[in-house]
Design a protein that fits this description.
This protein has helices spanning 2-20, 113-116, 165-181, 202-211, 226-234, 276-289; strands at residues 24-36, 41-46, 56-61, 75-84, 87-98, 131-134, 139-141, 150-155, 189-194, 219-223, 240-242, 250-252, 255-259, 265-270. It is of the alpha+beta class and 290 residues long. The chain has a seven-stranded mixed β-sheet, with helices on both faces. Strands 3-2-1-4-5 form a five-stranded antiparallel β-sheet, with no helix packed on it. Helix 3 crosses helix 6. It binds copper (II) ion. Copper (II) ion (CU) binds next to loops.
């Protein structure tokens, strides 16, 4: 019995040591802009996290929803950000003050079309066209992908948070595998557009594709003129803002979309809570429709 307990403790210690191996923690200071207790999420406008990411406004997750109780928008907090290989969450949150809210959270809908000049594409409407460069530096217009259904997403390769752009990459890796395995979906093409052309040049995208084991005959990485990319992405609901003093300091939301073989929008997925299974299911209904 005694031996058993010792063994159990030893195993538990070993397990926690392993779990901690790739875990990094950072202090995070900022202001709560909004709370979504049902999704165990809160949006925080935070200061630079030294050695990890610039100042940013982003949604963060908690694993323990009790951490959110008593918090309201406007609270100033000190928190601990835990980053693991495939996720990130806040493990402690301490309220240290209150301040008036300045501006709406980053995930707020884009400004009305009249003021921005960019209207969101609606399902059934043709998606915009734009010139891009692919990972080989070859000129590719978005319209050139017509003829096959496309799943398109928007990322930047330097994105530090595993639950954001890197999650889109992991989902696309999963999609690539499933599309290969399903004969009825074998013509579906994956497209990843970078909204950080300054860093994400064709060679950088090529290296990124390699790291993801992307099959370039089914998955294309695009970069291009920053204004063109921004205009194109905005039509899908992507909003990107870059710091004045460092354009690589990017605050962004996430959008992923299915575009039909005829070049019209089928469906847009918001944020990071869609699953590859959901997209596969939607692609299948698309296949049976045409
Ligand atoms: Cu990102």
């Amino acid at each position: 019995m005694r031996l058993n307990i010792t063994l159990t403790i030893a195993l538990a210690l070993l397990a926690s040591a392993c779990a901690k191996a790739d875990e990094r923690t950072y202090p995070l200071q900022g202001q709560v802009l909004s709370l979504e207790p049902a999704r165990k999420q809160l949006t925080i406008k935070h200061e630079e996290i030294k050695g990890f990411m610039p100042a940013m406004t982003m949604p963060y997750e908690v694993r323990d929803e009790k951490l959110l109780s008593g918090l309201v928008a406007g609270d100033l907090i000190n928190a601990t950000l835990v980053v693991v290989s495939n996720g990130a969450y806040l493990s402690t949150i301490k309220k240290v003050g209150q301040a008036p809210l300045e501006k709406p959270p980053a995930e707020a809908p884009n400004p009305p079309a009249a003021s921005s000049g960019f209207e969101l594409v609606k399902p059934g409407q043709p998606v915009p066209d734009a010139p891009f460069l692919d990972q080989d530096g070859k000129a590719r217009r978005f319209s050139a992908f017509r003829g096959a259904p496309i799943v398109v997403t928007f990322i930047y390769t330097k994105c530090p948070l595993p639950t954001f752009c890197p999650l889109m990459d992991r989902h696309f890796v999963t999609l690539q595998k499933s599309l290969k395995a399903d004969a009825s979906l074998k013509n579906v093409h994956l497209v990843t557009v970078s909204f950080d052309p300054l860093t994400d040049t064709p060679p950088v995208l090529k290296e990124h594709a390699k790291r993801l084991s992307a099959d370039l005959s089914r998955w294309t990485f695009l970069t291009g003129d920053r204004d063109e990319v921004d205009r194109f992405a905005a039509r899908f609901g992507v909003s990107v803002s870059r710091a004045m003093n460092d354009p690589r300091d990017i605050t962004h939301n996430l959008r992923t979309a299915i575009v039909g073989a005829d070049g019209t929008l089928v469906k847009t997925y918001t944020g990071n809570d869609w699953s590859p299974e959901q997209i596969l299911a939607d692609l299948k209904t698309l296949g049976s429709r045409t």
